[in-house]
Amino acid sequence: MESLLHDSKKTLVTINGIMKDHNSSSENNNVVINLDHGDPKMFYSYWKKVDNECSVTIKASDLISYFVNPKEADFFYQMPGFNDAIRRVHRVIGNAVAEDRYIIGGTGSSQLFITALRALALSIKETNSNGGKRIPVVCAEPYYSYYGEAIEQERSKLFEWQGDANTFQEKSGPYVEVVTSPNNPDGTIRTPVVNREEGVVIYDLAYYWPHYTPITSPADYDVMLFTMSKTSGHAGSRVGVTTYYRWAIIRDQDTAKKMKKQILLTSIRSSHEGQLRATKILNFIADKYEHDPYYMVEKPSKVPKLFEVEGLFEYGHRVLGQRWEKLRAVVVQHTPRIRLPDFSPSFCNFMGKLTSPTPAFAWVEFESGEDAEEVMRKLKFQGRNGSRFGINVSRRYIRANMMGDDSSFNLFLERLSSLRIVD
Ligand SMILES: Cc1ncc(COP(=O)(O)O)c(C=O)c1O
To answer: Which of 30, 107, 241, 306 is in the most buried spot, having the most CB atoms within 10 Å?
Structure first.
């Protein structure tokens, strides 16, 4: 059987066999690079340029009260400006219909995903007794590993994880299907696979933004989830006070009310500091496209400092596009038995031109049949093995983060390019 060799200056590693000589020629050779998590560090250099324009000052006496929106009995914890900024950014980008919908801010995807599931399962159970059984939750493989792990951890009496939606088509009864589009891990555009009347669909649209995929129409579904982590890259501020937001847009009032109740009872609301920061960032993004002279027909004589940087989505698409190009070049030249998914360009309504998908993760297949995690480990990389994305997904796949910082990505390319095939 063929095997893959890793061969750098002073390092020779047979991936299919034993490590032969692994004397590192440089410090870098010993560094283990983490490409496992979807850490969006590539956005750091963008936001660095507008540190001052996008900073938020919070005085010790600010935001003391629970109540920021006393007019809204159910939503007193959510700042009106936060709701407006979310609606505005979706309108400007054209990726989702958010007018006349409930906007529910939350602390990260685990909270809103599970909250949405509880609310939907409760609504389903009220109209369909389902013989007292738990509501199955499914998603087509390969699926984002978090869903199953979070649901199993939850041990809910209302719903249960049943894995691959493709194996659920012949079954009967109510269910919830999760559709992630573009998909994590493989970047594909997805639609539901079960399609039965008794089903409810949660659309996880974390990556439906122009830096990852062409925006072909505004998403208009009953339950949609988005997250600041992947929109602007502000993923890490969940420590202590929450300063990144994931929001759900719900059309049906009854389900939205149940979600609000869940949020109130489980998290005692989301942090106002986080809402403030998200509002600032989202309005900056929208300002760029609504008021930047570059996009305006009548150009003002003086360009405000704010607009000297490129738009967030042009930046993101450019950086990811360059990374994908480099990765493909390395794969073609050095490692012919590694396969990357192919994506066709589509017309992006937001960019006003044909653009190619540039997914947030590379779904790498080792066609020679190697265990991808083994290979990556020997190259001193941590990636997420295919088996985490579904029980039928082969271990020859691995998911590698494309949104990390430059140095990790460059090391990834360097080490990958040292792989070659031997008989
Ligand atoms: C599809 C999808 N949804 C949600 C999330 C998590 O987002 P958050 O940072 O809000 O937890 C991720 C993170 O990788 C994701 O890939």
So the answer is: 107
The number of the ligand 1 atom at minimal distance from the alpha carbon of 235 is 9
**How many angstroms separate the alpha carbon of residue 205 from the centre of ligand 1?**
9
Q: Does 8 have pLDDT greater than 50?
A: no
User: To the nearest whole percent, how much of the chain has pLDDT over 70?
Assistant: 83
Say yes or no to pLDDT of 101 above 90.
Answer: no
Cβ–ligand 1 distance for 246 under 6 Å, the answer yes
In this structure, the strands spanning 175-180 and 353-355 are unpaired
Q: Among candidates 239, 256, 121, which has minimal Cα distance to 247?
A: 256
The full set of domain ranges for the chain reads 3-45+312-422, 65-288
| Distance from Cα 267 to the centre of ligand 1, integer Å | 18
Distance 235 CA to ligand 1 centre (A): 9
Q: Is the CB of 227 under 6 A from ligand 1?
A: yes
Amino acid at 352: G
Q: How far is the CA of 9 from the centre of ligand 1 (A)?
A: 38
**Residues 6+ positions from 88 with CB-CB distance below 8 Å:** 282, 283, 286
- pLDDT at site 20: 32
CATH number attached to the domain at 3-45+312-422: 3.90.1150.10
**Does 192 sit behind a cis peptide bond, omega within 30 degrees of 0 on the bond before it?**
no
Measured in angstroms, how far is the CA atom of residue 109 from the centroid of ligand 1?
A: 6
Third-level CATH fold of 65-288: Aspartate Aminotransferase; domain 2 (3.40.640)
pLDDT tens-digit map of 323-382: 999 999 999 887 778 899 999 999 999 999 999 999 999 999 988 888 888 888 888 888
